[in-house]
Amino acid sequence: MGDASEWVPADADVDALRSAAPACRGCELWRPATQVVFSRGPSRAGMVLVGEQPGDREDLEGEPFVGPAGRVLAEALEAAGIDVDDVYLTNAVKHFRFEERGKRRLHKTPSPTHVRACAPWLEAELAAVRPRVVVALGATAARAVLGRAVTVSHERGHLIDGRVLVTTHPSAVLRLRGRDGYEAAFAELVADLAVARA
User: Fold this and answer.
1) Dihedral angle of Cα 64, 88, 38, 65, to the nearest 10 degrees
2) Cα–Cα distance, 161 to 76 (Å, whole number)
3) In the CATH scheme, what is the code of domain 5-197?
């Protein structure tokens, strides 16, 4: 498997990148997915949030963070004093990787190969947006942003290289909803986002 380089236009703005993304064949994930899920938010945002990959809802609707985890993220951003409309939201991998179980499509974590294949898109997005801070939501996003394996629990909550902050993915918080630990996990996510805002 190669990567997306040949499909990523050079020195492009976000609109040009978004227009080019549906043609990408940098890995095999485009085949089973409904569509590419690129990004949303202002093209000159001060903060970029990078997730892992689109989920089922995102794959169907074509926008990142519109499913249940996206609602948790929106609540956490609001609690941290950040307007969701002021941040640029994207994913390390632009197509939904899943396995079918009956009529359901269950999330399957992208492999490091998928992250590498999609890296030219993320690099081009960050070059176009030029944010002051990049928030990596979860280990897959952190690997994509930092170019190395990351243990979220060891590196979360502080700026790395002056502009990257690692925190948990909102889906990890969502899995705790209704159980012990949810409030604490949500509060940690809010605290990390507040560091990024500051």
Assistant:
1) 0
2) 24
3) 3.40.470.10
What pLDDT tens digit does each residue of the chain (198 aa) get? 578 888 999 989 999 999 999 998 888 877 878 888 999 999 999 999 999 999 888 988 889 989 888 999 999 999 999 998 899 999 999 988 778 888 887 778 888 888 898 999 999 999 999 999 999 999 999 999 999 988 998 999 899 988 999 999 998 898 888 888 889 999 999 999 999 998
Our measurement of the distance from residue 39's CA atom to the centroid of its chain's CA atoms, rounded to an integer in Å, reads 9
Instruction: Supply the pLDDT for residue 96.
Output: 81
- Cα–Cα distances in angstroms (integers) from residue 146 to residues 2, 48, 142, in the given order: 20, 14, 6
Token digits for 68?
A: 């249940």
Helix (H/G/I), strand (E/B), else coil: 114: helix
| Dist CA 74 CA 68 (whole Å) | 10
Taking the CA atoms of the chain, what radius of gyration do you get in angstroms? 16
Looking at this protein, which amino acid is placed at residue 79? Answer: A
